[in-house]
Amino acid sequence: MTRLHLATATTPGAIALLQLRGPDAVRVLAQLTGRSDWPDGRVRLCSFDGIDEGLAVVRQPEPHDGDAWAQLMPHGGPRVVQQLIDRLIGLGCTYDPAPDPRIVYPEAASAIEADMLDTVARAASPAAIDLLTEQPARWRASWPMPEADRQAQRTAIAERSRVLHRLIVPATVVVAGPANVGKSTLTNALMGRAVSLVADLPGTTRDWVGGLVELRAGDGPEVAVRWLDTPGLRDSDDAVEQRAIALARRVVAEADVLIAMRDDASDWPGAQALPRTPDLWVVNKCDDAAEATDEDARDAGLAPSMPLRISAAQQHGLGTLQQRVLARLGLDVLGDDLPWAFSPTLQAWAAGEHADIDAYLAEAARCE
Q: N- to C-terminal Cα distance for the chain?
């Protein structure tokens, strides 16, 4: 049996990595590419049965291992990847959507290192990369923990790890407020591209739009969040707009960070429009907006009486806004000394479940 798995994230990317492993890996690759000569370790540019063009390489089996490896590197668009997976299944491969990281990353020296590489591949935030690569060494240095401190450390690690998990699966940030206060302008400024319609007409945005935005606190690394721009929350007789507003209210209720926005010509959205209390309060279209100083940085934006003043059009005050959002998520400072329970084994231990963490970390120590 030749197994097939995707070694890169399922999200769109420039390059994807598909791996085949099994006694028929070379035969399958030959059928897919029309090339039968595959010297060990030689990377070749070839056509993948007309689906795409990319690189491929074969690693012949070691004496103790009867399975050959083949790696395909097509473009990372979801349609290309899915077409290739379907074609490879048709050639006899068995697709494994969640393979053991030790199989995906045979170069890893230990299980924790393979889990780290697997988590890096799934991470949405650039901030996760350096932090994850430190974890095998950080866990080895912290283990074994003294019995007297172990429960307190377990609780602290579990709490911090829940926060850091947002570097892998991004938190949701929702901007809500009346129509025409600049929510779309703010979204476009943070994304660096026009994803929201911008016009001086109420109801221009009929549905919530957005995408991944990388925020930064000061000189810190980028943290990805799902940034959503809701339609103007107001009464409307338009049936289509009513459905969009109802959907927006559900999104608002589930947001990790809710930003209420208005301008000087409008009021804050009322309790009827917002199903919960906002986390941040922002006034847009302020020509005199600037980044908050050290003295007022702790308070600006935390209450409707002390809103954060910004100008999305002029991109003034946006640095402070980004810091505010990351602080609400607990991701404005990442340089603490606690290990991160990022893998299933470590997460089980942190949750108080049975996990053979001694053997898990002992293997990593032996491989140093």
A: 34
